[in-house]
Amino acid sequence: MLKSEILESASAAVGAGPRPEPTMRMHLWVETDDGVLFGLGRLQLLRQVERCGSLKAAAESLGMSYRGAWGKIKTTEELIGRKLIERATSRRAGYHLTSFGCGIARDFDKWYQDVESYALSKGQECFPFSLGKYT
User: Fold this and answer.
1) Predicted pLDDT of residue 10
2) Residues facing residue 32 across a β-bridge
3) Phi and psi (nearest 5°) for 14?
4) Backbone φ/ψ region at 38: left (φ over 0), alpha (ψ -120 to 50), beta
5) pLDDT under 50 in the chain at which residues?
6) What is the pLDDT of residue 117?
7) Count of other CB atoms within 10 angstroms of residue 92
8) Cα–Cα distance between 57 and 100 in angstroms, integer?
9) Which of 42, 94, 110, 117 has a 20 to 30 Å separation from 29 between CA atoms?
10) CATH number of 35-127, picked from 1.10.340.30, 1.10.10.10, 1.50.10.20, 3.40.1180.10
11) E strands along 7-63, which residues?
12) Pairing mode of beta strands 35-39, 85-87
């Protein structure tokens, strides 16, 4: 459908009045044949580990089981061959991100923001209505 046709059908819509703003959403992740390497879920998990200092608390805050969170971290570590998190000085002190974990979280977040900005910009060019960013 052409932009002009979309505009015509939108203006002819029954009960045309205030409408909710369309929102652009996207899913972006990196995977191999062996599984998910990194994505938004892993990023959120790493951020929560850093914030909470605990994998258990991080998992709970995201509505995940400890086992599920641990499995996601381990899968990524095995696929990459590097540690994302490590125990703090004692067992009771919990976990913190390794420097590699901090770096991959920062770099993925930057890449995600760049792709999202580009996609939003292209969407604005394609559609006759404004697009909002999912928050």
Assistant:
1) 52
2) 35
3) -65, 135
4) beta
5) none
6) 94
7) 8
8) 21
9) 94
10) 1.10.10.10
11) 23-24, 29-32, 35-39
12) unpaired
